[in-house]
Amino acid sequence: MTPGRNLLPPLGLLRRHLEANGWIRVSGTSALDNFVLPPDTKDDDELRIILNRDPQGPDADRRIEQAVITLSQLYGETPQETASKIRMVDFDVIRARLPDDLVIRDSINLRMAEKFVSGLRRLLASSALAQLTGSAVADKSDPVAALFVESCRLGHTFKGSFGFTIESPVGPNSFDAAAPTPEPFERRVVERLAQGLMSVERATKLGDTEILEEQINDGCNINMMEALSTLVEQTDGSTIVFDFSLSDAWLPRTDKTVQAVIPPDALAVTAQIIRKHRGNTLTKGARVTGYVYKLELRGSTDLFSSENIRNVTIEVAGGELDGKTLGVRLTPDQYLVALHAHEAGRLVLLEGTLTRLTRGLALSNLTGFEAL
Question: Which of 19, 41, 70, 354 could serve as a FRET partner for 86 with CA atoms 20 to 30 Å apart?
C-alpha cells in the first residue's frame, strides 16, 4: 500500500533525506536529478532514484512515490513509515510515554495531560539552559533557552500507550564536505537530554549516584534533575519512557534512536544529588499557594486523636515551585480546613519552612494555613 498523494513528502525534504543517508547526486538533465546509492560491496547492485527538479513538473508526484517505495523496501518498512520519516528530516523527535494504568479508553485525565505537557516544557527549558551554561546549577533564565522551547512543536499522541511527541527543529544541513556546517544548538540540547536521562536510568538501576555526578556538567544538571523529578511526581510517581529519534540530517554523537526509562525510584537517586548541591533547607518563612492534592489520615477514626497522623499533599500553583508537590503534616483543625478546601476546589495558603526530602519537598514548622 502506497501513501496517498496528500501524504507524499515534499520534494525538498526527500532530497535532504537522500543526501543525509549517503545518496550522491550525479549528472542528470535540466529537468531531472539522478541520485545514486553506492553499493556496499562490489557484488551489490547500485540503487538509483530519479527526481524532478521542479516539484510542479510532469510526473513529479509519481517519481516521489516511486522513491518512497524504493526507500521503504531498502529500510524494510511500510511506505507510510518511510514517508513519515522523510517528513521529519529537519526535526529531532522525542516521545514521552505514560504507563497503561493511567490510560482509560485511549485517554488520560485532562489535568494530568496539562501537567505532563507543562513538565515537559520545563524539562526542555532546563536542558537548553544547561547546554548554554555547561554548569551544574543554572538558575538564571536565558532568552535563548526560552526561544528553543517555543520553537519545539507538540505532535500527535500515539497509539499503543499514551504519550506525547515533541518535535525539535534542527534545520537543513548543507552536506558540504569542504565546509561542514556546525551541529546546531537544538541538536546539542536534545542529545544532552537523551544522554542525561539514560544516565539517570543507569544510576537508578545500579544505585550509584556517582554516575550522575560524573556527567553533571555535560548531561543532567541539577535543574534538569529537578524538572525531571517534578514531571514524575506530577504523573503520580509513574514510570515514564522517553524515546529519541534523531534526524538523519546531522551525524549524532550517539545512536540515532535511544530510549530512557525513568521509574519512580529515580526520584530518590536524583534527590541525593540535588540535596548535595542545594542543601536540605530551601526557605524559612516560605509562603506557598496551591491546591490540596491528596489527604491521608492514619490512626484511629477520631480525627482529633493525638495519635493520628494527618498528612496532606499540596500541588503548588504559581511562583518558582509551580506544579511541584509538597507534603505537609497538619493539626486536626488545619486538616478540616484542607478537607473542605479540597472538596470545594479552593486554593490554600501555607507558611513555614520549605525543606527537601528524599523524594520531593515538604513544608514544616507551619506558621500559617488557611483556605482562600
Answer: 41
The three cell numbers locating residue 258: 535511544
Residue 98, C-alpha cell as written in the block = 505514560
Residues 236 and 314 in one domain: no
Domain co-membership, 266 together with 284: no
Is 359 found in the same domain as 306? yes
Give, in order, the Cα–Cα distances in Å from 282 to each of 115, 131, 225, 274, 362: 23, 25, 16, 11, 10
pLDDT above 90 covers what percent of the chain? 31
Q: What is the CATH number of the domain that holds 308?
A: 2.40.50
Spatial distance between the Cα atoms of 221 and 126, rounded to a whole number of angstroms: 9
Strand 325-329 to 361-371 pairing: parallel
Model-level pTM? 0.75
Q: Are residues 97 and 230 in the same domain?
A: yes
Q: How far apart are CA 82 and CA 67, in angstroms?
A: 10
C-alpha cell, 306: 493525638
What is the SS3 assignment for 123?
A: helix
pLDDT at residue 264 above 60? yes
- For residue 257 the three cell numbers come to 534512536
Residue type, 333: D
Q: CA-CA distance, 58 to 36, in Å (whole number)?
A: 22
101 and 142 part of one domain: yes
Report the domain count for the chain.
Answer: 3
Q: What is the pLDDT of residues 247-263, one digit of tens each?
A: 888 877 777 889 999 99
**Is residue 237 located within the same domain as residue 284?**
no
| 3-state class (DSSP) for residue 136 | coil
Q: Which of 250-259, 277-286, 361-370 has the lowest mean pLDDT?
A: 277-286
- Give the per-residue pLDDT at 4: 58
Residues 102 and 122 in one domain: yes
**Domain of residue 9, residue span:** 5-89
Judge whether residue 266 has pLDDT over 90.
yes
